[in-house]
Specification:
193 residues, mainly beta, SH3 type barrels, 2 domains, five-stranded antiparallel beta sheet, 0% helix, elongated
Length: 193
């Protein structure tokens, strides 16, 4: 935007390779028009990509080289399904397609939801804890029913599937990591992959 003043946030967020950073900002034109910006920069500080966005983007997090997870204000004008919530809306940003996809479920199911901030991102694959009769699933140090308990995951919790499975005395066990970071084994009969 010729003749515009550009203000960028101070912090850069780098992807897993450390080669690309992203920064948000705003361009203001003295003639009245302006734009919210999402900029992708190279490690040397040179500009790689620039996007104009319909609203400001809060705290973007890299998922992979072309996808970000972030939040935007509810009043952004982006389509979302039947909700009147205030605060922020989680979104998936596809840099390759140049699109912002609102995530309306599960964060908008309850009318009491307000801010919807993203505090962490954990990449899968995952296994969901199921059929515990609303108790919890023991995550054990070894794939044995008598092994020490490292954690107990509640019904519905997503455990990261570490890709190892084994059998012990006719029971299937899956190696998992809890949201707190404990790595151990859980009975596969209580996991939905």
């Amino acid at each position: 935007m010729a003749g515009s003043l550009v203000a960028l946030q101070w912090s850069y967020t780098f992807d897993s390779t450390g080669n690309h950073g992203l920064v948000t900002g705003i361009a203001v034109n003295p003639m009245g028009s302006g734009a919210n910006l999402l900029l992708i920069v190279r490690r040397d500080g040179s500009l790689e990509l620039a996007f104009s966005t319909p609203t400001f983007i809060v705290g973007p997090i890299w998922l992979d080289e072309t996808h970000l997870l972030s939040t935007i204000p509810w009043n952004s004008g982006l389509p979302r399904s039947g909700t009147t919530n205030r605060g922020y809306l989680p979104v998936l940003i596809d840099l390759g397609a140049g699109l912002i996809h609102p995530i309306s479920h599960p964060s908008t199911d309850s009318p009491s939801v307000g801010i919807n901030g993203i505090i962490a991102v954990q990449q899968g694959p995952f296994a969901r804890v199921v059929h515990t009769d609303n108790t919890c699933l023991n995550v054990r140090a070894e794939p044995l029913p008598s092994a020490g308990i490292l954690d107990c995951a509640a019904e519905g919790v997503l455990l990261r599937d570490l890709g190892q499975a084994t059998d012990f005395a006719g029971s299937n066990w899956l190696q998992v990591a809890t949201p707190a970071g404990a790595e151990g084994w859980a009975s596969a009969q209580y996991l939905e992959r």
